[in-house]
Write a structure and sequence with these properties.
The complex is a heterodimer of chains A (about 240) and B (about 425). Chain A has about 240 residues and is of the alpha/beta class. Chain A folds into 2 domains: about 110 residues, Rossmann fold; about 130 residues, Rossmann fold, CATH 3.40.50. In chain A, the strands form 2 sheets. A 4-stranded parallel β-sheet of chain A has the order 2-1-3-4, sandwiched between helices. In chain A, helix 2 packs across helix 12 and helix 10 packs across helix 11. The longest helix of chain A has 17 residues. Chain A is globular and about 50 Å long. The model of chain A has no long low-confidence stretch (mean pLDDT about 95). Chain B is of the alpha/beta class. In chain B, the strands form 4 sheets. Chain B has a 6-stranded parallel β-sheet, sandwiched between helices. In chain B, a hairpin with a 4-residue loop joins strand 5 and strand 6. The mean pLDDT of chain B is about 95. Classes of the chains: A alpha/beta (about 240), B alpha/beta (about 425). At the A-B interface, helix 1, helix 3, helix 9 and helix 10 of A face helix 1, helix 2, helix 15, helix 19 and helix 20 of B.
């Protein structure tokens, strides 16, 4: 029986520190969870391009890998993996019975929130949270969990943005469009930054994080608000470090 | 990646690049972004109603979705009932299996008339009537001010179906009127409106012989055409005319006049518009005031011709085609202003049928997958806002996904996406 930490290919390829932070949180809450060598990509990026047959083959091969590793439960830090694993795997493999959770769901459990008892010393920080499409459109949407977590933190206040929950807007990184036309993101990701008056913008999706960070780093956009990946924010609080600087 | 795929990708890239310069596309997208934000923002406020637009959608979505699904399942019965009832109501009714058949009927009904006065009618584009009239040198006189402006500017690019011409600036409109009509106007909206009211209204009241509209809905059991509008142009040209032609796809059929009202109300609310008129037309005008003898053609239309067109619709349902859900669409265009790609790309992400995903799917239905790719199919991020918002429960995002799959299978997908796909299946990691 393996409880797997499934980081997702984007995070593990590009955001090593975020991955380490995620592992810290997950193991703090449940030390039975572990990572494995070379996990295969869930296939989310091909779901709108490949034929059903190709997808079924891929999904089956990933599921076989899960079986070989005796995975019974997994927690992912990627919104895309969460959406895809909890929706399409069941569609292609009727007896797919691995319990799939996003890190937000794990953290938001009352006993885990209590265990974390997060707080920020010093001046109260106002943050905004961006709802990723993948979390919004999943079979079991994730809206409440990040809000529960953020509002449980002493010294942190969540200020809702205009486009939130079901009405959130896409950062422009979905569907692989980011790799061909960044112009979508140029407009939409910037629009997301402009919405809330927080000191930081928090997202739980590595695709959104990538798109938003590119906008933030471009000085011409004059975006002073940093975008922070959820787990990075949390770990800094756990370590008593200022989470936005 | 085929040569064709590369070629289409370059074409889309070229169009997208036009947004970086001072082009017509750029002018459009600048306005469109503002309009989308304003539209979505006003969905959240209650306006003069007691509820927000989402609450209104939530309240009636199930009823509307059920109504549309019932139509899809019983399409033949709806058409049969509708034709019978309309004929009883003294409409002249045609049923055209294809757009081509509809064209023949339309030209026959037009007779010797060389001018037609038209309401906005997006259906006319879908049915190919605009192209038909152009080929036959029929003068199309638009009556919706937005379309009047489109004609004034000779604007060829796609525009917002509900408010075409809304992106033209006041000073540009005034300059254009001076150039075309030699009249100098104060540069404000009221002066422009007054100008058309003073000049064009007389013509609409006196000179219309044949008018063309679509319908927001046709109540099959009641034999009634429902038309929603704000300007009064539809009211005028459907009354002050000899012949009113209603050309629509059969997807406009609903069971009763109450359902027709729900459709019009939903279109109004989802557009956050507060419109002045809903016309319910039950037939040509008439009187029995002379000795109780029924005579058609009193002050209103003498003849109302309804052309119901099937074309792709029944086939989509009966052959279970992946885009069959489009049959349930009520043409409210909500999917446009909540669309991330539409906001970013404006009328670059569009087809000759209008803006956004719906217009791209229509282009696919009529002109095939290459047309859809050229319209910017792969600019869609799959955010599913269109599906989440649709008041009739149409899963537009799923149809777009299927289109992308078909395009990829036919080697028309952009090169880097193809690379991602290959890496996932081959290396089990797209970022390696």
């Amino acid at each position: 029986m393996t409880k797997l930490i499934y980081l997702g290919c984007l995070s593990s390829s590009k955001y090593k520190e975020t991955c380490e932070n995620a592992i810290k949180i997950i193991n703090f809450l449940d030390d039975e969870f572990k990572t494995l060598e070379n996990p295969p990509c869930c296939g989310a990026l091909s779901y709108h391009l490949a034929s059903d047959e190709e997808l079924k083959n891929h999904v089956t091969s990933v599921n076989n890998w899960f079986k070989e590793q005796e995975v019974t439960e997994l927690v992912t830090i990627c919104a895309g993996c969460y959406n895809y694993l909890s929706h399409y795997y069941k569609e292609f493999i009727p007896d797919f019975n691995i319990k799939v959770q996003h890190l937000l769901q794990l953290m938001a459990q009352p006993e885990n929130l209590q265990k974390l008892s997060l707080k920020h010393e010093g001046k109260k920080i106002i943050v905004n949270y961006h709802d990723a499409c993948h979390l919004k459109n999943a079979d079991i949407p994730i809206f409440e969990e990040p809000r529960k977590i953020l509002s449980s933190i002493e010294g942190v206040e969540l200020k809702e943005m205009e486009n939130r929950r079901e009405l959130s807007i896409c950062c422009g990184a979905g569907g692989g469009v980011y790799s061909i036309f960044k112009e979508n993101s140029d407009y939409n990701a910037l629009a997301i930054f402009k919405q809330g008056k927080g000191k930081a913008l928090i997202t739980a999706c590595p695709f959104c994080y990538t798109a938003l960070r590119r906008i933030q780093e471009n000085k011409d956009n004059k975006v002073r608000k940093p975008v922070i990946k959820f787990e990075d924010f949390i770990v800094k609080l756990m370590e008593g470090v200022d989470p936005i600087n | 990646m085929s040569e064709k795929g590369q070629d289409l990708f370059e074409k889309v890239k070229e169009k997208v690049d036009r947004l970086k310069e001072d082009t017509l596309e750029k002018q459009f997208v600048d306005f469109w972004r503002m309009a989308c934000n304003a539209k979505q923002r006003s969905c959240d406020i209650t306006l003069q109603y007691g509820d927000s637009t989402y609450e209104f959608i939530d309240k009636y979505k199930e009823q509307l979705t059920h109504m549309r699904e019932d139509f899809a399942q019983n399409i033949d019965a709806y058409v049969e009932t509708c034709i019978k009832r309309l004929e009883q109501k003294k409409f002249k009714v045609y049923y055209a299996k294809t757009n081509e058949e509809a064209h023949e009927i339309f030209m026959k009904e037009l007779g010797d008339n060389k001018t037609i006065y038209k309401s906005k009618s997006n259906e006319a584009k879908d049915l190919g009537l605009i192209e038909l009239m152009k080929e036959n040198n029929i003068e199309i006189k638009e009556t919706d001010l937005g379309d009047v402006l489109i004609q004034l500017f000779d604007y060829k690019l796609p525009s917002y179906q509900v408010g075409p011409g809304i992106h033209f600036k006041v000073e540009d409109i005034v300059a254009k009127i001076k150039e075309k009509h030699g009249v100098e106007l104060e540069p404000n909206a009221a002066a422009i409106v007054q100008y058309f009211r003073n000049t064009y209204r007389k013509e609409l009241l006196n000179d219309v012989k044949v008018s063309l509209t679509s319908a927001n809905a046709i109540a099959a059991e009641d034999g009634c055409i429902a038309l929603l509008e704000n300007e009064g142009n539809i009211s005028i040209i459907t009354r002050a005319t000899e012949k009113h032609i209603v050309a629509v796809g059969i997807t406009k059929l609903v069971p009763t006049v109450f359902d027709a009202l729900l459709v019009t109300k939903m279109v109004e609310r989802t557009n956050n518009a507060d419109l002045a008129y809903i016309s319910l037309i039950y037939g040509p005008s008439g009187t029995s005031d002379v000795q109780g003898l029924a005579v058609k053609g009193m002050y209103g239309a003498k003849e109302v011709v309804v052309i119901l067109v099937d074309d792709w619709r029944t086939k989509a349902i009966k052959d279970n085609l992946f885009y069959k859900a489009i049959v349930n669409c009520i043409s409210c265009k909500t999917c446009n202003f909540v669309c991330t790609a539409s906001r970013a790309f404006g009328n670059v992400y569009a087809s000759k049928y209008g803006l956004g995903a719906l217009a791209i799917i229509k282009d696919y239905i009529h002109n095939g997958i290459e047309a859809a790719v050229e319209d910017g199919l792969f600019l869609c991020t799959g955010c599913e806002n269109c599906s989440n918002w649709c008041p009739a429960g149409v899963n537009l995002a799923e149809i777009m996904k299927q289109l992308k799959k078909e395009a990829t299978e036919k080697a028309l997908c952009p090169p880097s996406l193809k690379e991602y796909k290959d890496k996932i299946f081959r290396d089990k990691n797209p970022f390696k």
